Amino acid sequence: MSTDIPTAKEELINALKELSKASLDVSKKTNTLLSLLDNDNDNDDGSNKKKRRIKRDPNAPKKPLTSYILFYNHLRGAVAAKDSSLSQTDIAKEISKQWKEMSDDDKSYWRQLYEDDKLRYDTEMIQYRNSLNLNI
Predict the structure, then answer these.
(1) Alpha-carbon distance 61 to 125, whole Å?
(2) 20 to 30 A from 105, CA-CA: which of 19, 22, 56, 78?
């Protein structure tokens, strides 16, 4: 029985070596395949590539908030205070429900706020673009 243990130990070691070699071979083949797939994607028309976001000039005026977002921002605190157990998703659902049920006359107030802010934005954009042209 004592002679069987060293033999079994040696067989186990050899099996583990073969398994390690096979694992290394699979890893190399996987890396080769991934490399080929990556190179294949580079030759595409660019549809799979990440698009780089254009950095926004911090001096540019901010766009106006939509009428719904103005309404949402106005009610968010009140809805959250009414029921503190509501998640952000539930708060958004509640405000969305109120917006959909609101009459067009009531929505006109929020649309007017948007129009006023859009006018401000357009005016500031004209001034901003003029300032860029003067600096060139």
Answers:
(1) 6
(2) 78
